[in-house]
Amino acid sequence: MAFTCPSFGLSRSWSSDRFDTNVSLHHSCPDPNLAPGLASLQWSPGPLGRAISIGSQLGSVALQGDHAQLVPKPETKLYHRRWLMLFLFSAVSASNAFMWLQYGIISNIFMRFYNIDSLAIDWLSMIYLLTYIPLILPVLWLLDNRGIRDVVLVGAAFNCIGAWIKIGSASPDLFAVTFFGQFVCSVATVFVLGIPSYLASVWFGETEVSTACSIGVLGNQLGIAIGFLVPPILVPNVDDLDELAHHISIMFYITAGVATLLFILVVFVFQERPELPPTQAQATARSIPPEQYSYTASILRLLRNRPFIFLIVTYGLNVGCFYAVGTLLNRMIIDHYPGEEVNAGRIGLTIIIAGMVGSLICGIWLDRTKTYKQTTLAVYSMSLVGMIIYAATLNLGHLWVVFITAGALGFFMTGYLPLGFEFAVELTYPESEGTSSGLLNCSAQVFGIIFTICQGKIIDRFGTLAGNIFLCVFLLIGTIMTGKTLFFDRQTCAMWSHSRLLISSHCTRTVFVCDCYCFYEFKC
């Protein structure tokens, strides 16, 4: 039975216990004013296990034919071991993130130990960002062609090898060795940083993916938090270089031991995917032949997606500021509070712990409300406010104030990380989540390098306040651009506002087109 309206032909099929209902909308009266891709829409489950609104599919190509078909509903199942996979991946990510900041948070100590300048120490952190840029595309290809297990396994291997290389660098004349070990660890970052959204979709149900993605991001943040807290404790600022070398060796041995244990666990425990898919959408994704997917074409489509390009830039601005703050935190705190290396680490810990709470809350909020656009703009705006307050209070002479303002900054700035991934999925359906996440992270690395170098130079010449104002300016630009991203999305929705349609029977399925409240509700 078919229902039609002046603008659309709609066909649908009835459902039973064994069959799923497919509903498709096809534009029967082509309008030359419509953008390419708006001529047809089809409701379908999201990529890799997500239920995606029809508004997320604008610009995608509808399936051929005007008739819906009865499709057997595949069996689905949620396995308890999905949490083990998520925990193991998060632990690998945390181990790698710890080594990112183990130098920067005690930069003054390593500068004296290796007899190097501040820029050389900064590069021990920025090498993580630089390595990501040329390697992300090959790793995305590997993810799409070899799967998540191989990618995580290679990442854990590089993480382990780099940690052991650094053990041999605990001597003042071996800075080159420690830099090489850090470079190897930075390669591991490329293999783990964009995995959370992909792993969440492959293993978790529709109502869990945002929370699972947030937990995956939270694992990385936990590693950064430990990286802020532990190095100042393990490596005290002592005058004797031999004693200092001993403390540094202890830190390197601990990190190598943890990285080795995690690599062994990944080899024997981590799995590619569950036997049965967690969702109908994941079952559909599994049924698509690999030869029908073009990696290059997917990237080109993403780069032609104007709202996504805006998101790439805004995500890079926000996360790039976060990278700069994390890398230069010790210098900023020591400048105003000399001798407070341990408290600098605790302030960094406060930023990350607050951010972990923010990430988790944002993930749960998205799972319950699906308000990606409004939440993204609100959190981005509050990141700007938090940065302004942090910059204004850093030089007041009260560390307890810095703890509070830094915590507020971390809550929103770090809480934005999973939001960016989730919003990207909404804007880029039906493209691979690994690809969109990889491009977001690539942007973050580029801006992270630029901001870290520029802010470091500004701090050296004009002080920490000027350096933080520099970041505030770019967060303001990012907030404005985020609002523009929503504007473009609403413009697209406006094309459909005249086509509100309500069809009733006895069971309800609602598909929302963006946020302009053009909706289609089907009952069978």
Q: What do these coordinates show?
A:
- The structure is a single chain.
- By secondary structure, this protein is α+β, with helices and mostly antiparallel strands.
- It has two domains: 2-72 and 502-523, no CATH class; 82-283 and 302-487, Growth Hormone, Chain: A, CATH 1.20.1250.20.
- It has helices at 82-101, 107-114, 118-146, 148-167, 175-192, 196-203, 209-234, 241-269, 280-287, 295-303, 306-336, 341-369, 372-393, 399-428, 433-462, 464-494; strands at residues 2-4, 8-12, 19-20, 23-27, 40-42, 71-72, 501-502, 508-513, 518-523.
- The strands form three sheets. It has a four-stranded antiparallel beta sheet, with no helix packed on it.
Brief characterization of the structure:
The chain crosses the membrane at residues 83-103, 123-143, 150-167, 179-200, 212-230, 250-270, 308-326, 346-365, 377-393, 399-419, 439-459, 465-487. This protein is α+β, with helices and mostly antiparallel strands and 524 residues long.
List keywords for this structure.
transmembrane helix, alpha+beta, Growth Hormone, Chain: A, 9 strands, disordered N terminus, three-stranded mixed sheet, 524 residues
Number of helices: 16
* Name of the top-level CATH class of the largest domain: Mainly Alpha
How many β-strands, per DSSP?
Answer: 9
What structural class should be given to the helix and strand makeup?
alpha+beta
